[in-house]
Amino acid sequence: MSKEHPFIPYDPVRFDESELSRRAEEQYRFANRRRSIRDFSEKDIPFEVIQNIVMTAGTAPSGAHREPWTFCVIRSADLKKRIRAAAEAEEYESYSKRMSDQWLEDLKPMGTDWHKPFLEKVPWIIVVFKRAFEYDNGQKHQNYYVNESVGIACGMLINAIHNAGLATLTHTPSPMNFLTKILERPDNERPYLLLPVGYPAGNVKVPDLQRKSFSELAVVFD
To answer: Do the beta carbons of residue 128 and residue 149 sit within 8 Å?
Structure first.
């Protein structure tokens, strides 16, 4: 610790053991209700809600605290229309030519195809860009653990969306370079993830899937 880089006291949140257990179980139960959906309501969402969701994602840890992310928050109907057209063009190529037979077979339970009407229907889209490097006084400055840092931020973003009572879908049309062009992003940013954000449609249905149990997803070394 130096005078140039001072530390400040940390004020942790503390709970007794019973409250700790209750909160952990409650969080799991709530998180387990989260589902990816593809049919959204057109009902609007206040900007302040989206702002706080994004700010929550921005609390994620990052390599050397470089915070190597940009969140593009989109409500413009014109931009959403252009994004949908470009995404569907890439998705059509993927579903008809790029994806293997096994991949297509694995996607069947999801009930998805190259059509992405939700990209125009949702009130908001959040496009996450990873920042490969920064420009400091005209010189490139490296960022560290960029994919890991942005991945953590995206997980926190998805959880914040669910916590607000909203729904989303992790959408990664490949390649995603069209997002850089449409949103006119600088050359140090790369598209990482697209998230439509809105209320679920009233009649929305989701695949009847089960998540792995604790014993299937974890190894305990006691």
So the answer is: no
